[in-house]
Amino acid sequence: MTATVPSAAAPLTTADGRPWDVVVIGSGIGGLVTASQLAGKGATVLVLERYLIPGGSGGSFQREGYTFDVGASMIFGFGTQGHTNLLTRALADVGEHCETIPDPAQLAYHLPGGLQVAVDRDYERFLADLTALFPHEAKGIRAFYDTCWQVFRCLDAMPLLSLEDPAYLAKVFFKAPLACLGLARWLPVNVGAVARAHISDPALLKFIDMECFCWSVMPADRTPMINAGMVFSDRHAGGINYPRGGVGVIAEKLAAGLRSHGGAIHYRSRVVKVLLENGRAVGVRLAGGEEIRARRVVSNATRWDTFGSLVDEAHTPAAKRTWRRRYKPSSSFLSLHLGVKAEAIPPGSHVHHLLLERWEDMEAEQGVIFVSIPTLLDPSLAPAGHHIVHTFTPSAMATWQGLAPGAYKAAKEAAASRLIRRLEAILPGLEGAITHREIGTPRSHRRFLGRHGGSYGPVPALRLPGLLPMPFNRTAIPDLYCVGDSCFPGQGLNAVAFSGFACAHRIGADLGLNPWNLPA
């Protein structure tokens, strides 16, 4: 996969000079799904991206023959059955397709006390492996994970569109009433309560905390059961599937599908303001002063960047201030993109790993280490005889603020060296095998992704009732919508794809573009 810089000559005006139907700020996966879905419905759509390529944290970049994923490469949503395969569906709806490579395991855990388990793609094999470690909890293990399947089957039984559209809700209830009722039951529930109802072993409950933390960056008591039902089951249903050519291919193909359906995407276009007239969103202003008019505006920026920056505090609705009290930005990451000699990877290694030496460090600065070796699935991402090791660990912006250039560089190098030493517990001899190294900090993520504090999304500031407080796509400002990980249902590529489908459906309803029938 070669990341290309699209032409900067993409149109900023419609062919007939009228306002766009929809302008989307940002080309993350949520923004691209929204834009491509709306273009497929016949809307005139313009996406404005501040960087050179699409995808945001779901993009890829190239260095010295390596194709590195910006963010995580453990991808859900590429299944072939049901309704939760949202990346497959989003691409197909605009005539695109990603070739994918199935991963035989979701993740290999390396946890305190020598607890090691790999989550096999086969559900029964995973349960057997976990039960072998906790034989006294055999009944509870099956009961807990089978409960997650109940949630997943409710989700998978219905097209996942906007919960803000009463007509959709009525149609989907008529089609799948039991699934709707089942889903409503789980909306206010968090994982921790369900786990404790079936399991009592403290070490096993810690493992379930880590199962949640690996994708929600929260322990089980603060992770919604709806999200867990999706993740803990879809890894065995649709499975983890890596897009051949790197994660950035997803964004490139969505952008191509957008253009093929009459939409446009313009790069190097930083939006600095949402234009408001009589309290309604009517367009955007770019950093260069140019103003672009639209009937609807969609922000794929974080809620913090949208309200307080794109929309100033004076026009920020009171509901958004309430949301800020309930949610806080998740940590950003210290990340290393390493090119290594092939001999650094032990034979039989899994693609994805999670390493933690002490339970009390799970939510600590640079505590949990995530590792991805995507070249075990797609060797074309690296030069012959080499692999990619992409590793990242949670890190707060406060750790890196206020450092002078020399001190900042020294702190990065020291943190990278510590991280590599820890990784040698699972990749012996790693340090001596590195041929290429790039270090990213929260400052890097803020600079290149334009995200508040380099954050990868919101997490509850206190224990909340499941997903009920999570905002949907509409905002209190008429004709302004949000999409991405600051919206229901939260973080992860498949989750932001859901928010994109939901946002496009809600705008489609507002503009009279939606077909009557539900998707098949």
Q: Topology, pairings included?
A:
Blueprint: E1 20-25, H1 29-40, E2 45-48, E3 60-63, E4 66-69, H2 86-93, E5 100-102, E6 105-111, E7 115-120, H3 123-133, H4 138-156, H5 166-175, H6 177-186, H7 191-198, H8 202-216, H9 225-234, E8 241-243, H10 248-260, E9 264-266, E10 271-277, E11 280-286, E12 291-299, H11 303-306, H12 318-326, E13 327-329, E14 332-341, E15 352-355, E16 369-372, E17 386-395, H13 405-423, H14 430-433, E18 434-440, H15 442-449, E19 458-460, E20 480-482, H16 493-511
Parallel strand pairs: 1-2, 1-12, 2-9, 6-15, 12-20
Antiparallel strand pairs: 3-4, 5-8, 6-7, 10-11, 11-12, 13-19, 14-17, 14-18, 15-16, 16-17
Helix pairs in contact: 1-10, 1-16, 2-10, 3-4, 4-6, 4-7, 4-9, 5-6, 7-8
What fraction, in percent, of the residue positions are helical?
Answer: 25-40%
Number of strands: 20
Write down the overall mean pLDDT. Answer: 91
- Main sheet record: 7 strands, mixed
The SS-based structural class is alpha/beta
Gyration radius (Cα, Å) is 22 Å
Question: How many distinct helices?
Answer: 16
Proportion of residues in β-strands: 15-25%
Low-confidence stretches: 1-9
Q: How far do the termini sit from each other?
A: 32 Å
Principal-axis shape equals globular
